[in-house]
Write a structure and sequence with these properties.
heterodimer, A: 121 residues, mainly alpha, elongated, B: 396 residues, alpha+beta, Heat Shock Protein 90, five-stranded antiparallel beta sheet
């Protein structure tokens, strides 16, 4: 094998690895996708309903984000925005194991996905 | 020409100043009170109007919140903000960030409940649940401001009536304050009138008899005594004439005629020559001929007498009196001790005297001022301390 064909094969390997990396990252997604969507898709209540519940109770971006983070770090029946019937059926979620930074990133993405600002006509 | 004499007693300069000050203060206070009452009335009427509008706005807000609730529930299917032709709305979150608005006026006071803003009325409602995150719901309706026009009209009418009533009360109060002063002046005038009436006969007798004495046949000693009596009698006669002018003469009509002012001046200087000789005062006359004034002879004589009498009275021994007459003015200048600037403005006040070392009642310049006022003559007094005083009477 001469140097030319070796270089060509090396480039092919690098490109293949790059495509594979992009593909896997798309499959796995962000912290929000991996850690929030992944679980909520199995629950009959879609994830946006929780958002509107938070909005109904806390109103502003700052307060909503703070309330979600506070709940995820230490979930309890007192802190939930969901109805008792819902909790009785599905129970309280487990405490999040995500770091503060990951949790904040996930909540920011959640807010951006469902926020009201700029969507009203 | 017959001119009606002024029978109103002139108030002193300081008294006039006090009365003007009182009246100005009174009017200012009245205006401040009326403005305050108008403002309170305006606030009251505005609150009344807003409380009436508030009932409608409350109903509108309930309707709007129901629609907002529906939008919140169906936000994944419908994102059209609810609108109504009767009112405009805006929603703000709990951090007072605008979520959406159809308002005309951008000036919003979220801490208020109902208020006016740029010809609109705003009503702030806080719903129990924050649909779409809306903690504050603002409703806006047009304000045609007819209530404001009504208030303006009412305030204008009532303040005008109030001010007129206040002015009448002020005038009545002023009259009450002036009364004691006027009474005092009347009392003094009546006293002088009574006194002078009693002096008339003896003074006339003295002056007439002295004039009849032929001094050329008398020895020098006796002639000097007669001259002294003559000076004394003339001084008393002059004071008598001044007092009677003030108390009697100014209540009758003037008999005006064209008079040669120069001729009268020479006569009056001659009359006062005996008095001037006592202080060795020299008259320097610069009189232009044929200067005519349409005036009552008694009044012109009184005016000149008072000016010459003052020039002699306040002059120094061996002084001079410069009398200048031309077609524009008469000026009489003495070489006396002069008058301080701050006292010049008070010179025309009756009974005011600045040099108590010489005799007099302080009425001379008051009479001069009254005569000048009657004949529209301008009087100008200038004085320099230790140099003298110049009185100018201008008729052009």
């Amino acid at each position: 094998m001469d140097i030319k064909s070796f270089t060509r094969s090396l480039l092919k390997v690098i490109m293949s690895l790059g495509i594979l990396f992009v593909f896997t990252s798309q499959v796995h997604g962000s912290v929000y996708t991996q850690n929030c969507i992944a679980c909520h898709k199995d629950i009959p209540v879609s994830i946006d309903k929780y958002f509107y519940r938070y909005l109904l109770k806390y109103s502003s971006e700052k307060k909503v984000k703070h309330a979600i983070k506070h709940f995820l770090q230490n979930p309890s029946q007192e802190k939930t925005v969901m109805a008792d019937a819902f909790i009785n059926r599905f129970g309280i979620k487990n405490k999040s194991k995500l770091s503060d930074k990951d949790l904040e990133n996930a909540i920011n993405e959640y807010w951006k996905t469902f926020e009201i600002f700029g969507k009203l006509k | 020409m017959l001119a009606l004499k002024n029978s109103v007693i002139d108030l002193h300069h300081s008294e006039k100043k006090t009365l003007v000050g009182f009246f100005s203060l009174y009017i200012t206070l009245c205006i401040v009170i009326l403005i305050f009452i108008s403002f309170v009335y305006y606030k009251f009427q505005k609150d009344l109007m807003l409380s009436q509008k508030r009932i409608d706005l409350q109903n509108y807000s309930n309707e709007f919140i129901i629609e907002l609730k529906q939008l919140h529930i169906n936000f994944d299917k419908n994102r059209v903000y609810p609108r109504d032709t009767r009112f405009k709305t805006a929603i703000y979150d709990s951090d007072k960030q605008l979520i959406f608005s159809t308002l005309k006026s951008s000036s919003v006071q979220l801490d208020n409940i109902v208020y006016t803003s740029n010809k609109t009325i705003h009503f702030i409602k806080e719903p129990e649940s924050y649909y779409l995150g809306a903690r504050y719901v603002i409703l806006e309706i047009e304000d045609n401001e007819t209530w404001l026009d009504d208030i303006e009209q009412e305030v204008m009418i009532f303040t005008s009536i109030g001010l007129i009533i206040m002015l009448f009360i002020g005038y009545w109060l002023l009259q009450l304050f002036i009364k004691p002063m006027r009474d005092a002046m009347h009392l003094l005038d009546r006293f002088i009138k009574d006194t002078t009436h009693e002096l008339n006969t003896p003074i006339s007798a003295i002056v007439a008899n002295i004039e009849m004495i032929d001094t050329s046949n008398l020895d020098d000693k006796l002639a000097r005594k007669i001259r002294r009596i003559d000076i004394g009698a003339k001084t008393v006669s002059n004071i008598y004439q001044d007092l009677t002018y003030l108390t009697l003469n100014h209540q009758i009509m003037s008999q005006n005629e064209h008079l040669d002012v120069g001729e009268i001046l020479y006569q009056r200087v001659e009359y006062f020559s005996t008095l001037a000789n006592v202080k060795h005062i020299e008259f320097k006359m610069d009189i232009q001929d044929n200067i005519l004034l349409f005036i009552d002879i008694k009044k012109l004589s009184k005016l000149i007498d008072n000016l010459i009498s003052n020039a002699i009275k306040y002059n120094k021994i061996n002084g001079t009196i410069d009398i200048l007459l031309n077609d524009k003015h008469l000026s009489i200048r003495d070489s006396g001790k002069g008058i301080k600037k701050e006292q010049l403005a008070l010179l025309y006040d009756r009974y005011s005297r600045f040099d108590k070392t010489v005799g007099g009642f302080g009425i001379g310049l008051n009479i001069v001022s009254m005569i000048c006022k009657e004949y529209h003559l301008e009087i100008d007094i200038s004085s320099e301390i230790n140099i003298g005083t110049k009185v100018e009477v201008k008729w052009i």
